[in-house]
Amino acid sequence: MASAQFCAALRQSRRCARLELHSSLLSSQLSPQCRFTSTTAVPNTEPPAQSSESTVQEKEKTKITRRLTKPKRMTYGRVIEGMESGPLSKQSKVQLPHMDTWRKVFHMTKDVGKRVSLRNPDTAKMLAESFVPEGSRDKVVIEASPGPGQLTRALLDLPKERIKKLIVLEPVSQYLEYLKPLENIDERVKVLPLPGHSWSSYTKLLEMGLLSDVEKTDWSQVHPHLTFIMTMAPFVDGEQLAAQLLRTVPERQWLQQYGRVPMHFILTGRMWERMKAPPSSMPRCKVSVMAQAAAEMYEAIPYDFLQPYSDHFHPDRHNTYELKYGDLDLRRLGIPLTSASFIPLEHPKIETGDLDIWDYCVRKLFVQKATPLEKCITALGPGATNLLPKLDDPDKPEDKVDLKKTPRGLDMEEWSRVVRVFKSWPFRPEDLGIGTLFNPHQHNR
Questions:
Q1: 399-445 per-position pLDDT tens digit
Q2: How far is CA 247 from CA 267, 353, 369, 375, 439, in A?
Q3: Comparing C-alpha atoms, which of 264, 261, 314 is closest to residue 114?
Q4: What whole-number distance in Å separates Cα of residue 103 and Cα of residue 64?
């Protein structure tokens, strides 16, 4: 009972104390006193304080002033090393940002994510020296898909007499911001927002007259003034494009209409292994045969000079789990890349007009690439076994082929003999398109 009365008295005293404090604050005309001062009344000699309303207005005014004068926050959270904090002018974009900041500078859009760009300036210098070596004079260089232009700048840093004109094809807008300023400082540069993988882009070059000063040379010599450079996408599209560009050699189409134009690619190590694969090796495939029938090929710089990927290329992205356990997908960003040069052969194995025949024979026989030729030759069409005696005729050693070999084991001379015998066969199929791989009656209802 006593404890209950005590608690009630305590609560009542607290309420009274709060009421007394509130009434004293309202009645006082003085500024709040420090709690350590005396409670004795002191005459007021100071001027009256501002009203509470004017004080609130002053505080709001201060807040607004601070908000207006507060610096805006950077887009990337901090100032990128080596770059100004303010908006970049065109002049400043003549120089590329440091390679370690590329992931922050160049946003990972859909277009950027499907592309590979060289970012290491030292590697770019080595490639430029290889693609346009000492002794070159007045070259017209077409560079496709360069990204923001690390290799482009390395080419411009070469002695000026080597390159007369540099035509750059790049459709990505954020890369163009670092390429377009080069036109203002070097009259040799022409930057076009065109995709390097589109045939129409090269038609537009002709329409614009950018190749009007390029002479057509005799096929007996490598073109001394025209060179093509391209960074391939690390996907199936990039591999297919590399194969298609080599197919222009036998028919002398595209840039090859000007003569034997050298081509230099930055491409996946996987594609390079397939292209250069020798007979009987596991990577040997249709791509190997068609590429070797059209051009001589070699590494522009040693493979190890471009490894690891993250030291040389942008964007640096790969699956760390797959990389650690050895199951890395060899057709995605972050895989090993290499550089290769392709010089069209003076006498291609594929003669002019025979590209479709070669494509048909190689494609059909590689369906059974591990089967001896004497058994898999039926893939060339009904009655193709009649070609076997012609391929094993002792009286015609120029057409003789070892029938025990598999398609993977045939060298380029033996492939030429198979195609030549097939071409002279009067009953060969008329339709040599890819649709003949399938049975036209299997979908009949």
A1: 899 999 999 999 999 999 999 999 999 999 988 875 433 333 333 33
A2: 17, 12, 22, 29, 27
A3: 314
A4: 37
